[in-house]
Specification:
Elements lengths: L4 E8 L2 E6 L4 E5 L1 H5 L8 H4 L3 H4 L3 E2 L4 E2 L14
Antiparallel strand pairs: 1-2, 2-3, 4-5
């Protein structure tokens, strides 16, 4: 099984440090990825370029998400 994000340890603008289910702590810098969406206002990724929005990242024990940014549909069709 692929490791999942168990807990967010810290959030800084565009950088998230998290504990994964394989017991590893990883720091992910989203800055480079998100910078590609700076001029793409129609993209959902553009919405988290706002520092205040980014700092509201959460985890459900599997992935990182932001309330009110997008809905995630699971493989079984559940939202």
């Amino acid at each position: 099984m692929n490791p999942r994000i168990k807990k967010i340890i810290s959030i800084d603008p565009f950088v998230i440090k998290a504990l994964w289910t394989d017991k590893q702590v990883r720091t992910t810098d989203f800055g480079k990825f998100l910078s590609e969406y700076f001029d793409k206002k129609e993209s959902i990724f553009h919405k988290i370029l706002d520092e205040n929005a980014f700092l509201n990242a959460k985890t459900d024990g599997r992935t990182i998400y932001w309330d009110g940014i997008a809905e995630m549909e699971d493989y079984d069709g559940k939202v």
